Automatic annotation (TrEMBL):
A GO molecular-function descriptor: procollagen-proline 4-dioxygenase activity
Lineage: Eukaryota, Metazoa, Spiralia, Lophotrochozoa, Mollusca
Organism: Biomphalaria glabrata (Bloodfluke planorb)
Cellular component terms (Gene Ontology): endoplasmic reticulum
Residue ranges of domain Fe2OG dioxygenase in the record: 275-385
Entry-linked PROSITE patterns: FE2OG_OXY
Protein name (Swiss-Prot/TrEMBL): Prolyl 4-hydroxylase subunit alpha-3-like isoform X2
Cofactor or coenzyme needed: L-ascorbate
Keywords: Dioxygenase, Endoplasmic reticulum, Glycoprotein, Iron, Metal-binding, Oxidoreductase, Vitamin C
Amino acid sequence: MEGARESLIRLQEVYNLQPREMAKGNYLNYKGPELSASDVYLIGKTAFTIEKYPQAVQWLTTAVDLMSKDIAITGPYVETPSFGMISTGNTAFLTDAQTYLGRSLLRVGDQENARKLYMSLVTDDIENKNIQTLGYELKSVGTVEIGQNQVITKFYNLCQQQSKTSEPTSMDSRLRCRFAYILLPYYRFHEEILSNTPYISMFYDVITSTDAERIKKDSSAIGLTRGKISPGLLNETTSSFRTSHVTFLSDEKSEAAAFLSRRISYLTHLDASKQAAEPHQVVNYGLGGHYALHLDVFLEERAEMKARFENYGNRMATFLIYLTDVERGGSTAFPGADLVVSPTKGNAVFWYSFTPDGEIDHLTEHAGCPVVIGEKWIINKWIWTYGNTFTRRCGLKPNASQLDIEREMYSGYTGKHKKQRD
């Protein structure tokens, strides 16, 4: 339940939703679950606990209003056949909500209203522990500085837009659509270059609905578990940084996965086999499911990572396929490239995690926006550097772009460029 409450707080924060509207079941004009006064109070209490004080103020203000209306209608007591007049509990919940509201107001710098709340409460119940805590904090707790860096702000703005891609301009005519061929000239897929620096492109209709369902079925048969974050191989842990369920699907365990690996190799001209890439990662996101800003590459060569780096190198590229449409939310945002891709079933996003000179490209930092309505399924393939050392080399010039390397790669690094894509 705590996780569910945090999900609603996340939706509020990222999409600038109002708790009063969420309580009515209004989520960006989509119909969602309505919330009771006690639901709203408990969400506000969770927001306070995880130090989301501005959000806590909004939830708790709404809770106090809703509880006050309930008491006005039903009264603080109700008559029962067996026990006579008993308390509905609304008054106690209201007092708790008011004290948490006062404590939240203190932390956002509104001492005046926090003090007013305390004075209105202390005359009725001076022995209440929560009221006493509020009184103590009025003397000892000041404003809590709540900072939000520009990257996070940009990420939120991109999520709210749902979809935003760069338009081709005279300054960079390489941002365009083209065909990617597979074996036969007429067997081709549409590719749209969304960004050249960092290099990000989108492939259209790379998987059928039938294969997408097979991937989901094969993954469910293996079993999905709560996604973890991993600073190193030996200390994985669950975190609100990433809220999803995942599994890994190898080519040996799924014909659909093996077929997909071959297709990725054809589309990217990289080796995506098990010798040069990780098994497919399948991920399912529910309500509020997200993955905060991160890079796919491993940044620290810790002792437990040494064998991985020596045998496989690092993750040089990512090929991410959407297995479902998402009605609202769930986009993939790249603040460094100022673009966000809306999840569309069958489409794929592809990017290189290294610059042409072999350095980590921090502009590929990306995130999965929280899901508002529906659920999101993806499958991604991480392609390694060592398995593609000679397939895709560094740029031959200091200012080479990924597209420059691509031309050299298609020619076999002979200098005779073959036209592979239109």
